[in-house]
Amino acid sequence: GVVLVLSGFQNPLRAQLRAAAVALGAQYRPDWTQDSTHLVCAFARTPKAARARQLGGVVLAPGWIWECQRLQKRVPCGP
Prior knowledge:
Number of strands: 4
CATH superfamily: BRCT domain
Structural class: alpha/beta
Shape: globular
Low-confidence stretches: none
Distance between the termini: 20 Å
Oligomer: single chain
């Protein structure tokens, strides 16, 4: 159920984050859409992050993807 958008990352890190998330079963979108659920961003205080929160999305740091990958499961989105 994760539909992921990335913000503030450049390649190769952007590609690595996307590949890790997709390998775990997430769907990727290049921009926020109605079905997006998670925004993984380099900077949490941006207009894009604020907009994602307003639309009910979860805003996360990239460490969330790495932790999901390490444990091979979706981990909680909280601290």
